[in-house]
Amino acid sequence: AAKAAGRGLLRFFDPAMQVAVAERVQLESDMRSGIEAGQFELYYQPKVQQGRIIGAEALVRWNHPERGLVSPLQFVPLAEESGLILPLGEWVMKSACEQLARWSTHPVLGHLSVSVNVSALQFRQPEFAQQVLATLATTGAPTRLLKFELTESMLIGDIEATITKMGQLRGYGVRFSLDDFGTGYSSLSYLKRLPLDEIKIDQSFVRHVLTDPNEAAIARTIIALGASLDLEVIAEGVETEEQRVFLERNGCDMWQGYLLSKPVSLAAFEALVHARTPAPGAEP
Ligand code: C2E
Ligand code: MG
Ligand code: MG
Ligand code: MG
């Protein structure tokens, strides 16, 4: 990027910036070896509908040998810029599908769906759909339980190609959600044309829903929009019972957020599902 910006800029490189650049280079090389060394892990955040855990969003974590658990906010953007999101995204996809396959025969966990975040670069690869189908086939994951979360940045560029690719995968049963809805480049005419199953209300519209009438109005509008386009609507970032009640009263009964659970390790997620599932024959 510095090269593209022109040589003149180099004069303004100060020592602090050089540290930042060195740090990025280091992080990138750590990431490359970390993928091979198995340092990445999927955490799961439950998705709830009418009190029942219906699935999870898979969120990647990096167990860095020196830095500890690193948040995706710190490495996903970098991974997107460097292209490392491609091998990382492939790993995420494979891991999520393997998990779906393992759950699929389990009496308590068999109904769970998994939502996977897909970055624009990954989705735009010509071989993306083929790769997904191959992963589904080799893992044996039930196709209908896999959902992809796309962001509005996918709408920039070749919209026709996006629609075709989504349609192809949907033909095989994979479902699609539009993540962080309302925060990006949203055109309602595109929204109508995209073969979506779900939109996800961004947490920035949930946070102040009880105190800010404008945010409440936006949340209600998104819910109504989803209903009129025959899309499922899920809210993210639900932290309080009052927020949950507001959403439910306004027609959004699907949510995820700290109110039930942060994203947690696989073992903790499975324990949570078991704890909330009444034993067979137990009083409701
Ligand atoms: P996202 O897909 O919008 O995920 C939601 C983020 O909100 C997650 O952050 C989650 O931990 C956080 N969150 C969930 N509930 C609450 C809540 O009640 N309150 C608050 N304050 N936050 C909540 P996380 O795990 O740090 O992930 C950040 C972003 O990194 C994700 O945003 C997603 O864009 C990206 N990301 C994560 N995993 C992957 C991945 O496997 N692939 C790609 N391409 N991106 C990923
Ligand atoms: Mg997401
Ligand atoms: Mg989101
Ligand atoms: Mg978000």
TrEMBL record:
Keywords: Membrane, Transmembrane, Transmembrane helix. It comes from the Bacteria. One of its GO terms (biological process) is regulation of DNA-templated transcription. GO terms for molecular function: catalytic activity. One of its GO terms (cellular component) is membrane. The keyword Membrane applies. Residues 24-277 form the EAL domain. It is found in: Membrane. This is EAL domain-containing protein. It comes from Comamonas flocculans. The chain holds residues 766 to 1049 of 1049 of the full protein.
